[in-house]
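Thread: Modeling a multi-component assembly for a lab meeting

Hi all, long-time lurker, first post. My supervisor asked me to bring a structural picture of a complex we are working on to next week's group meeting, and I have zero experience with this. I have the sequence lines for every component (695 residues in total). Could someone generate the structure of the whole assembly? Inputs are pasted exactly as I received them:
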Amino acid sequence: MRVLLALALVQAVGYLTLRALAGQSSRLRSLELWSLSFGAGCGILSLGLFYLAYWGIALSPTNTIVLAASLLGGLVVLYLVPRTHRGRTSSDESHAGEILALRHPLSALEWTCLAVVGLCIVIVFADAFSQPLLAFDARAIWAFKAKVLYFEQGIYNEAFLEADRLHAKTRYPQLVPLAETFIASISGGFHEPAIKLLFPCFYVSLILLVNSELRRSFDRRYALLCTSLFASLPVFTIYANGGAASGYADLPLAFYVTALSTRWWRWLQEGSSANLRLALLFTSLTVFTKTEGLALVFIVFLAAALAAWLLYGRTVRSLWPLPVTTLGGLICLAPWFLYQAQLPVVDEDFVKLLTVQNLIGGLARLPYILRSLLKEFFFKPHLWSLLGLSATFLVLRSPGAAVRSRFSILLWIPILYVVVLCAIFMVISWKLEELFPVALTRLGMHTAPLLFLWISFELENSGLILRD
Amino acid sequence: MVRANLALMFVGACVCGGMLIAAGFALSGSDFSWLAVLVGQAGSPNPQLLDKLRLVPTLIVVTGVQLLLGGAVLLFPCCRSVPLADRVPRLAGLQFRMRLLLGGWTATAVLSMNFGAITLVNRLQRNWGLSPSELIAADFGDDYHVVRAVRETTPETAAILIKTQRPLQFLLNYELYPRKFYFYPERHLPISSIPEAWMDQRRIGWILEISDTEPLQFQLAPRKAPF
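Re: Modeling a multi-component assembly
Sure thing. I ran the full set together rather than chain by chain. Output:
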């Protein structure tokens, strides 16, 4: 029961934070708010716990409750006060519009799509709740950190700072372990099935986010059809070492990258400052989730800048919000970067390895890398369904239009990410034959929702699907 | 025209469903090592994957039954009265390829959902009545001897020097927390050559050595020298 309270607290903090950040003039739809709330709540609470720990305040259950209560109280005040002074807002209007849309009876196809989504969610929740943490990284990396944070109530301990203490991926960011610590603190103990529920909640949020993006542009039927296909992607539902029930950080990262990218895309379309504030929040949370988050933030920044300049005809001077927001998001994480610098370097520093000399030296690895990528995305329908095939089909059908359409940022980000990953694979010292079986699918998950969105938009844009 | 299409779809669903059910029963009890090589991440069969692949015949039968049921639904009067074209997104140009793509997506979605549900039911049946610690022990398999030995022999406050290259060390680190595991930075150095001062500094009281080669062998011993 207390775990439900913890999850509800996360959702409430996220919802109110988004309302506060988006402001009264927000054009956020209620579905969009709900889809972003859980991730935002997890991120805000994890950041809050990290700041407490950074300043030497113990992460005791009492302090955790005080933090959550103060955040919630402050946000409720922020939410209630402006409401007494305003009438109907655009957000209320869009909410009313959604209710109106819901009043139209669902067709048989829509019911089927909803049933598919519901069944996928039930499978993932039941899978997560029916057993303790069993996936390797979920225990060895993320839950180990969470155990240390929960039982030792801080970050300045030997488990993190002593180089000779056994600790996998010491320098990995701590959003997921801190979120697990929060759940454990509120639910009254470190119970693995309760902690595992975090990840299916991210899965549901991601499904809602994809649906809300599709609903902005398409009718309900097409949006539901695409959402059901996305929800049933096997890589999320049945993949044991990285799927939505496994306890890995890849799904939360996929959620944050999708949220960040769609905020930038929305800013390009609408130019509203609310999206900038949300982009700042999701920049921080993307970087704080996993090491790859930093690379993804720069890729999203680059893609958004290029799209603004080449597709939306913005002048270079008008692009100042992009670097300012990205930098703002990184500055919010300054305590983390300062703390991370104190942690022992046990693993390779990828950025330092990315030199021209190393890249030239790694060219011999390229054919194997490309072969593996091809095999991963085209010959593993039991993980990716027809995602790779559909994307290739649409790109080859009209390459120019695919790259120049107004939503091509959703394609550029996965492509740029694959390029960066290839460059890293070329320079690292690990044996790729050992690395790829455990890492390639999970790395592909990070930008899969964006690629899926691009396919859905491109299908509609190309006129291949006519709507009544 | 609509009725002819429906009849064709009904016959197709019945034939495919029947074939799948027959194939499922025929494959029951077969060796799926070849499939493990094909679908496995490492390109080689592992026990967990083989265990899951044993459910493939059930998956095929269940999908066949669903096809038959889907075909039966087409016989309902409501399906016959409404043009089929109103029930799917209307397509223009490249129709065949588009329908093929959508059909492929739907087929993999159905298969993955069925597989997820079958795996879940099978696991719940098998694990019924087992406590979380018994489930963890089952997941460790033979390696659980190490967990049990360390847990039963050492106190929770123990500082343990671990010497192995096996990834198992990280699972022990999690499972046996709050015991503290340390490794000497030069991993290949024999334990006898590790400086006593280094061990004293970390108050190491136990030494756990696990073989890097198969079969797994381990030795857990208290450290003789005082700190």
